[in-house]
Amino acid sequence: LMHTGDTAGIVVFAVVTAVMAAVGYRIIHALGRVASVICALAFVYLGIRLLDRVDLSALLGDAHFDLPMFLLAVSL
Asked: How far is the C-alpha of 48 from the C-alpha of 15, rounded, in Å?
């Protein structure tokens, strides 16, 4: 397409690939940081809503322990 030799084409392709990898690496990690903050805020928000709507004393007062259900919950 560019009417250049093989060596020039390889060099151009290598440079374009290296630039995309460097920029893409930074973008991926920046998006990862943003996603981590969003997930942490969502976890805190949902935890607050859960504690606001559920009667914890009723949940903690139920002292019935069932080993098979515990093992099922741990295995999942």
From this structure: 50
pTM score over 0.70: no
Residue that is written with structure tokens 């515990």 in the block = 70
Instruction: Compute the distance between CA of residue 69 and CA of residue 76 in angstroms, rounded to an integer.
Output: 11
Q: What is the pLDDT of residues 10-44, one digit of tens each?
A: 998 899 889 888 888 888 888 899 999 999 999 99
**What phi-psi label fits residue 4: left (phi over 0), alpha (psi between -120 and 50 degrees) or beta?**
beta
Give the CA count within 13 Å in the CB-facing half-sphere of 57: 0
Per domain, the residue ranges of the chain are: 6-75
Structure tokens at 32: 């990862």
